[in-house]
């Protein structure tokens, strides 16, 4: 990565909570947000960047009506929506309509890797990005230091296979009750991609019987981060870190 142009792909959705939590003045929240973005750019040594925020009509809600249902009733910070509007109008953030912000970010990262000489660095504290090959910068927050991680393809495949058995409680994707992170890792450890898939299929068959195939496909579609930049809209011109 040394000597190459670095492009920071920043997950602003999470930063919006950080910047607006328990804040009463919009200009204060915006200052906190901008300062954090600048800190991320400095720590990643990025010469270019893009900001990403969530939009509307995420296709996953059509797959499962209970997707993120566990978040209903949870109030966002008072200034959250106003601050989000500012990130779009004033900071020119890319809006991810029809899918998750995560999808837009990984598709953009793939586009950069396959079509430029630059190195994409995904900037987020969301562990879902560990299911994709590449660099992930997790910024510092209370009691947690910042960290730069590189996930190779083999590890990314393993992480996704584990997720297929464990699900994602944060998004209310519940599968294979009783199988936790450590159990799933033990079940899949040292297996080839083929054997991991076979283990997942047999496990779903055990838990869901004749409905296993439908459940497996739906879970895959809910969990998989869509990175095909030819099928979804992504930014291709990036901001300069001046």
State the fourth-level CATH superfamily: 5'-nuclease
- E-strand count: 9
- The parts where pLDDT drops under 50 for at least 5 residues are none
Helical content (DSSP H or I, runs of 4+) = 40-55%
Between the first and last Cα atoms, what is the distance in angstroms? Answer: 20 Å
Tell me the fraction of residues in β-strands, as a range: 15-25%
In the CATH scheme, what's the topology name? Answer: Rossmann fold
Radius of gyration: 19 Å
Give helix and strand order, one letter per element, not per position. Answer: EHHEHHEHEEEHEEHHHE
Counting helices, strands and paired strands, the structural category is alpha/beta
Number of domains: 1
Question: Shape from CA axes?
Answer: globular
Largest sheet: 7 strands, mixed
Using the coordinates above, name the CATH class. Answer: Alpha Beta
């Amino acid at each position: 990565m040394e000597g190459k142009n670095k492009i920071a792909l920043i997950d602003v959705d999470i930063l919006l909570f950080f910047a607006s939590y328990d804040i009463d003045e919009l200009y204060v929240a915006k200052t906190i947000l901008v300062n954090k973005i600048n800190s991320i750019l400095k720590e990643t040594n990025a010469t270019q960047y893009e900001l990403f925020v969530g939009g509307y009509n995420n296709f996953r809600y059509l797959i499962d009506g209970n997707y993120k249902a566990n978040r209903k009733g949870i109030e966002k910070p008072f200034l959250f929506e106003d601050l989000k509007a500012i990130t779009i109008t004033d900071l020119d953030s890319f809006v991810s309509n029809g899918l998750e912000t995560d999808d837009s970010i990984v598709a953009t990262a793939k586009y950069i890797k396959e079509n430029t000489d630059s190195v994409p660095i995904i900037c987020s504290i969301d562990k879902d990005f560990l299911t994709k090959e590449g660099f992930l910068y997790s910024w510092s927050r209370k009691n947690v230091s910042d960290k730069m991680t590189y996930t190779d393809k083999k590890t990314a495949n393993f992480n996704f296979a584990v997720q297929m058995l464990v699900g994602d409680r944060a998004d209310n994707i519940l599968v294979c009750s009783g199988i936790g992170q450590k159990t799933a890792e033990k079940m899949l450890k040292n297996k080839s991609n083929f054997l991991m898939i076979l283990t997942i299929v047999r496990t779903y068959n055990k838990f869901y019987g004749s409905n296993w195939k439908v459940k497996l496909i739906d879970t895959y579609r809910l969990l998989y981060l869509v990175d095909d930049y030819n099928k979804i809209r992504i930014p291709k011109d990036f901001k300069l870190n001046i």
